[in-house]
Amino acid sequence: MNIPEEAVEAAAKALAELEPGEDWPSNIDLGGHALLGTRDDEFKRAMEQDAKRALTAALPHIEAALRKQIATDIRAVANGPTDWDDGYYEGRHDAARIAEEGTTK
């Protein structure tokens, strides 16, 4: 799964201890010269790289937990009373299995 850029940006800002919507610090904010150097670009790039590395490591665990929760939620509904036939019941269990295990498609 690809990590959305919005997630990388949000995580990078969290690592940089910036509030949501807060701008990245300038060269001057970071102790650099306004006209010389690219300290602000380097800082932002480093935060984004760290965020992407952390999200990439965490993603399989987050995805597995989400799949398990979705499957549990589907099964809870599927095991409830229904006026529908067994195909509806089996379809929900198939959906739960696919949510939990994934698909090769």
Written description of the protein model:
This protein is mainly α and 105 residues long. The protein has one domain. The chain is 64% helix and 0% strand. It contains three helices and no strands. It has helices at residues 5-15, 39-78, 86-101. α1 (5-15) crosses α2 and α2 (39-78) packs antiparallel against α3.
Which class best fits the helix and strand makeup?
mainly alpha
Shape: rod-shaped
Count of DSSP helices? Answer: 3
How large is the radius of gyration?
22 Å
Helix fraction by DSSP (H/I, runs of at least 4): 55-70%
Report on the biggest sheet: none
Low-pLDDT parts are none
Mean pLDDT: 81
Taken together, the total number of domains comes to 1
**What are the secondary-structure elements, in order, as H or E?**
HHH
Cα(first) to Cα(last) distance is 13 Å
Strand % is under 5%
Beta strand count: 0
Give the helices and strands, then pairings.
Blueprint: H1 5-15, H2 39-78, H3 86-101
Helix pairs in contact: 1-2, 2-3
